[in-house]
User: What shape does this take?
Amino acid sequence: MCGRFAQYRTTLDYLEALRADVADFQTGLETRPLGRYNVAPGSRVLLLNRQDDGLHLDPVMWGYLPFWAQQAKRPAMINARVETAATSKMFRGIWRNGRALVIADGWYEWKKDPENPKRKQPYFIRLKSAEPMFFAAIGQFRPATQGPREDDGFVIITAAADAGMIDIHDRRPLVLPPDVAREWIDPELSEDRAAQIGREAATPVDAFEWYPVSKAVGSVKNDGPDLLTLIDNPLL
Assistant: This one.
C-alpha cells in the first residue's frame, strides 16, 4: 500500500525526469522546492493530469469517495488495487476518465513484527538512481482555476510487491517509467492498454532500494528532510 510519501523537489525537476514539454503546461509550474517529506492522506497533493488545454499540476485531495458512498458515511479510500480498479463499483468511473500521476521522491512502509503486529519499523523506499518517480493514480478533479468540487479526490494505484520488497509490505504503488507515465495520462489511452500497463509496465523491484528511518514519520506534525535519514538501530 502507500500511506505516506515524499514530494520535495521543484516541479521542474519532476517534469525534466518525465521528459514533458514545459510549454504544454497550463498550471502548477513552480521553481521553489515543494519541500514535503511526509505527505499524508487527507491533504491536498499536486496531481499531474491532462486537460483539453494541456497539462496541469493541481492540488487535489488525497482520498476519494463517490457521492453515493458518501451518503453511507464510508471512509475515503486512499489506494486502489490495480487488479480490481477497472471493474469495481467504487473506481470504474474514474479509471476510465480520471487517470493522473502523483509526482514523488519515494514512499514509506511500516514493516511489522510477525509475532507482535504493534511493533513496527518505518522504511523509506526510493529508486536506486535517486530519480523522481511517478505513481499511477485515478481520481475526480478539474483545473485549479475552476475551483475544486466538494467530492474531488484521488487514489494511488497499488500492485502486489514482488520478491524482496514483500519483506517490507505486500503492496506497493504502481510506479511507472517516464515513457509509460506519459502514456498513462494520454486521453486517447484505451482501457485495454491501461489494464495492460497495470499488469506489465510497473518499474521492477530491483530498481528500488529501501532503508530504515525514524519513527518520527508516524506523526504528520513532522515534515522535514531529517525524516529521510538512515538510522542504524532499526527495530526490525
